Amino acid sequence: MFRSMFGFALLAVVAWLALKVFFVVFSVAVGLLGQLVWLAFLGFLVYMLLRVFAPGTADRVKEMVTGKPTTSV
Q1: Buried-most residue among 23, 38, 52, 59 (CB within 10 A)?
Q2: pLDDT value at residue 39
Q3: For residue 67, what pLDDT band results from cuts at 50, 70 and 90?
């Protein structure tokens, strides 16, 4: 009986540590994803400002990002 209680306690500790590691990794992944979305949003805002105030520059930025060759002389 003592051996089975010790086994269940050990299993509970291992499960608790595994859950703790899982949630730390999960929270880091969610944080990185949130940071990526925020940076993408800021880039979109900058692109929209360029599109409104300098359409030629916005076209060059779009060509640079998409990888199409430039046709400027």
Answers
A1: 59
A2: 97
A3: confident
Question: What is the chain written as a DSSP string?
Answer: -HHHHHHHHHHHHHHHHHHHHHHHHHHHHHHHHHHHHHHHHHHHHHHHHHHHH-HHHHHHHHHHHHTPPP---
**Straight-line distance from the first to the last Cα atom of the chain, in angstroms, rounded to the nearest whole number:** 85
Quick check: pTM over 0.70? no
| Distance from C-alpha of 23 to C-alpha of 29, rounded to nearest angstrom | 10
| Domain positions in the chain | 2-66
Contacts of 51 (CB under 8 A, 6+ apart): 58
Q: What is the pLDDT of residue 65?
A: 85
Rounded to an integer, what distance in angstroms lies between the CA atom of residue 69 and that of residue 60? Answer: 10
